[in-house]
User: Fold these one by one.
Assistant:
Number 1:
Amino acid sequence: MSSLNAQITWLSLQISGSATLLSLLVGIPSGVGLALAKFPGRGLLIALVNTGMGLPPVVVGLFVSIFLWRSGPLGPLGLLYTPTAIVIAQFVIAAPIVVGLTVAAMQQLNPKLRLQLLALGASRWQLLWLLMREARLPLLAAVMAGFGGVISEVGASMMVGGNLLGQTRVLTTATVLETGKGNFDVAIALSLILLALVFGVPYLLTWVQQRGRTS
């Protein structure tokens, strides 16, 4: 692997890893709350989350660009065409996926389990922790889906990052650029690296998931 490809790969991992981590920190608690709480408008909110799971990346890129543009609400921060802008866009893509799958994971638990834990004297935080532990295998699927949804997207990254060499060029945008230039050997090399990441990270998480299933 050339030093340039290694740099692009490392930046891709940093950006998509950060976006995935943020989506987990926000999405898992939000999904647990949506699954367990009862309040007016809950069904509508879940429907919006499910809709958000299919947001086109270019639409996300458009709205994030509007917010980060110089005349936009966050324009003074100067985040457009920076790695942070790509993290924000990828977070918007991944968060609904994590929330939606977390809601589904928690709702699949036996309703009697919650009553049993309460009857045994579990506190609110103990209850949440035990329920999440029980649903840990489906929650790993949320991690895999969130990471897979952002590491392989190109539209939002191109729009908010600008595909600047050494600054915001990631594997997907670099592949598009090299293909447009006719450098198919470089594009194929980048694609193979991307495929290795798309396969490798879920494979590792699947191994953890299956190991947890047998333990």
Note: The domain at 3-214 is CATH 1.10.3720.10 (MetI-like fold).
Number 2:
Amino acid sequence: MRIHRFLKESAIVLSLKTFPNYPDDPHPPKEELARVQEGVIGEFSDLFNAAGNVSNLTKLRSDLLAREQRTSTAIGKGIAFPHVRTQQARRFSIAIGRSEPGLPFGALDDQLVHVFVAMITPPHDDKFFLKVEQTLAESFAFSTDLYDAIMNAETPGEIVRVFSQTI
């Protein structure tokens, strides 16, 4: 699918700044889970904004957070896909963040999340967005290679190369 065409090194964070107050606890108090989700979504919103892909940063954060609160985007196996279709997205954008210690994010398998692949897109990009989302989910579901490569990467450039070789 060539997803790497949409991935820039400047949109990759090897160590997210958000840190849990309850390390190793995938079920922290509700307020702590909300704080972590807001922190991660804030970091990704800032990345999208810095790339010039956002029309209103405050509304984008609100839209991403509302999407996350409806249903967790943490699919399990240490992976989450925070995403939203929103008027605030100027174009399809993707960003990747990593958390070595892992973060509670409401995962279906009750595990901490280490790899976040965030996406935003305008509402009219449904078909393309769903194809990207499906491709990513399948890539992570059928092999641990992509996850392992992201976790072992030492530079954002390595992550871009992994995506260019695998997806």
Note: The mean pLDDT is 94.
Number 3:
Amino acid sequence: MRACLAIAALLGLLGSQAAAAHAFPEQTEPRVGAVIDHVPNQVRIWFDADLEPAFSTLRVLDAQGRQVNRDSGQVSAEHARLLEARLPPLAPGVYHVFWRVIARDGHATEGDYAFTVGR
């Protein structure tokens, strides 16, 4: 019985380490669901793990599904946990941010959120 409990505890520990290996957003700018009056000049997402720059992307689409950011986003040279993309001046409307990252350990995560530019 003790051996079974020890094995179960070890498997639980290994499973929690594997789950912690993925990179997940900690903060976004603009914030998720935000309605803002000023037009941002970039979208920034901070993650809880270092990102692999060659395989991490960020796209911002307008309501018609057109990509509005000029590049596919990039990991900041100064902060390995920051993914960012420059934006041109945006018209009022809803914008969708799509991100896909690979953590330095090779685990991929992806997601999306929206924000609204008012006025």
Note: Strands lie at 25-29, 35-36, 42-47, 57-61, 74-75, 82-86, 93-102, 108-117.
Number 4:
Amino acid sequence: MGGNAKTTEFLKECLADALIKLLKKKPLNKISIPEISETAQVGRTTYFRNFSSKQEAITFKLIKLWERWADEHNIAERKNFTSKNGLTFFEFNYSIKDLLALFYERGLQSTIYDAFYSIMVSQNKENVFEFYRGLFYSYGLFGLLDGWIKRGFHETPKEMQEYIDKI
């Protein structure tokens, strides 16, 4: 069973990578599912079995990139961003700045927020405080990220953390 889960994750990432490769050449609405599948060298049914939309594939890829980056950087706290560990948030985003710029160029900002929502907002319905706290920081940090991307990542991640501290 573990092998199947690994294979599924690998195929999902292949599809997401294929979509990103195609996004570099044309807008999302001009990219077909058969084109994504062909580029990824997997069957169309694999796409439909794993994703309900192209945006979902992008969100999946962002989450995978975060998980990989967090592993590489020994990040213990991966789902609870606050004003105290915002630097980690900005360092990660800076590491994928070209990808984020591409998503903005293609009007896909919502996929970025969807990924961060999934990462940052507690899915524990029992703890209402944690849920709202996650929303507060996810919207706030995304707002700062949005401005940072639009400014071309002019500031360093450390400067972005300094802005959080001042706010």
Note: The chain has a mean pLDDT of 90.
